[in-house]
Write a structure and sequence with these properties.
single chain; 225 residues; alpha/beta; Rossmann fold; five-stranded parallel sheet; three-stranded antiparallel sheet; 9 helices
């Protein structure tokens, strides 16, 4: 492998494990992990907290001050000087992010931020349109997915310890709705890039999923060199 920066794009639907698996892969390969979904969620939090109407979003975005910081090796997301890494993971913000991420001004605002990070570093970047829009020339593209039922089951288990945990059916309905919104939005809809490798993790655990992606990346980068 040469010294140029390497860009890995991982796309896929909500709940497919992109963030967790991308983090594992980035640690194994020594790349920087960039969670683009966290950026969009933070914008959604900003818009929601400030009651900003869609037509006012573009003029309000410069006040968002969204940033990623790596603290003790972990990516944290900041809105101004506030660490909002946990606040952006609520179901309400998840749905808000699906809606606001479809707004062209929001995508344009974050587009250059993501590309700049990728130009300057070897990265693994995950999201909905990384391989198709943000990094169309990525060295390796992965489309990570799993059945809606499996994704709902994973999410239900993750939330089951919390007192306000939604039912499995509520989570499944939310995932199906989120998939529809992401695939049918007018701007940068969720879809598999033509040159992306499909990885279905329905019957794989996290370790197996990460190992499969490391294998694909190593094979592709190795053959490219």
């Amino acid at each position: 492998m040469n010294n140029k920066t390497v860009n890995i794009a991982i796309d896929g639907p909500a709940g497919a494990g992109k963030s967790t698996i991308a983090k594992m892969v980035s640690k194994k390969l020594g790349y920087i992990y960039v969670d683009t979904g966290a950026l969009y969620r933070t914008i959604a939090l900003y818009i929601t907290e400030n009651g900003i109407e869609d037509e006012k979003v573009e003029e309000a975005l410069p006040g968002a001050e969204v940033s990623l910081k790596f603290i003790d090796g972990e990516q944290r997301v900041f809105l101004g000087d506030r660490d909002v890494s946990e606040l952006i993971r609520t179901p309400i913000i998840s749905m808000a992010a699906s809606r606001t991420s479809a707004l062209p001004p929001v995508r344009a605002y974050l587009f250059e931020t993501q590309q700049k990070i990728a130009r300057e570093n070897s990265v693994i970047m995950d999201g909905r349109d990384i391989g198709t829009v943000v990094l169309p020339n990525a060295d390796v593209k992965i489309f990570l997915t799993a059945s809606a039922e499996e994704r709902a089951d994973r999410r239900f288990k993750e939330l089951s310890e919390k007192p306000d945990c939604p039912s499995y059916q509520e989570i499944l309905d939310d995932i199906i709705q989120r998939d529809y919104q992401d695939m049918h939005r007018e701007t940068a809809p969720l879809k598999q890039a033509e040159d992306a490798v499909l990885v279905d993790t329905t019957h794989l655990n996290l370790e197996e999923s990460a190992a499969e992606i490391v294998r694909i990346i190593t094979e592709r980068i190795g053959s490219a060199d």
